[in-house]
Known about the structure:
Strand content: 25-35%
CATH class: Alpha Beta
CATH superfamily: Endonuclease/exonuclease/phosphatase
Helix content: 10-25%
CATH architecture: 4-Layer Sandwich
Number of strands: 20
CATH topology: Deoxyribonuclease I, Chain A
Number of domains: 1
Radius of gyration: 20 Å
Amino acid sequence: MPNKKPKKRRHRKGEDNENSYYISWWNVENLFDTENYPDRSDKLKRTIGNEIKGWNNIVLNKKLRQLADIIELMNDKRGPDILGVCEVENAHVLQKLIEKIKIKDRNYQIVHHDCSDNRGVDVAFIYDANRLEKGLTFSHVIMKRVATRDIFQVNFKTKKEGNDLILVGNHWPARSGGILESEPYRIVAGETLSYWNYRIQQILGDQVAIIALGDFNDEPFNRSLTDYALSTSTKDKVISATKRAPRFFNLMWQEMGKGLGTHYYQNFPTMLDQFLISKGFLVEDGAFEAVPNSIEIIRFEKMRVGKYGVPRRFGRPTTSVDFHGYSDHFPIGMKIVEK
């Protein structure tokens, strides 16, 4: 009698297993290298020199330790499989950060793009090379009079099943100068993201798994995200969208009614940091699915301060440093499952 093949055990939504991946994002707020970093360009020395006075190894190492402390607590103390970050000056300081992260069985590597932002801060990813293989990377320029951050795309592949997982990191132009006055810049960023969503699906198929994540400096309901990046709170709209104008499903809508934010302005919460997922996560024969109840704003008690529980900033020596602080943004996290 021939041996019967054992039935494959299907996962339950939200179950932690070898097919589960924890994805996170964090604007780590002004993670500059030391004041005397030798490879900083003359232009950057002129631009940011005054704001990083006193930013020495003691201050930097404390900032890195504070960030690493939170990263080590993510995903029930297992750490993220992928962490997207923004406001990092260079790969050198990011390498210092992963050296501070002490999590068993993690093999964290970085993928970083040095863009032409006016303040020299970039978008990057930290990923577990034991679980994911880094493929091609692309930088998508946002056309703006003053240099700003590129949209940074990394094509990952899972080592277990060999499925494509595309991460697109965003740090859109800030609201400084006024929300409406600066909105056109974020609209351009939204159009750029939407175009690359179309191009990725055109090349890899409309069932490819894409996560656009980042600090969008707008909220889920703002025009830059709804009308230009083509993100929505309606799954059916994403599934039935045309191939020429694919949509994103914005996972942060479900968090909007909780009275919390990832960033606070005058103690009012704003949902600036978001996860947008492509059609590939929503269709039956896609390689991945998002775990709906896993979406979270990571706001441990020690990260909050004041009556309204705003993020506890680390600051910098030119204003004030709080060695018990972290960033002016809370990180966000989610789980996906490879089918």
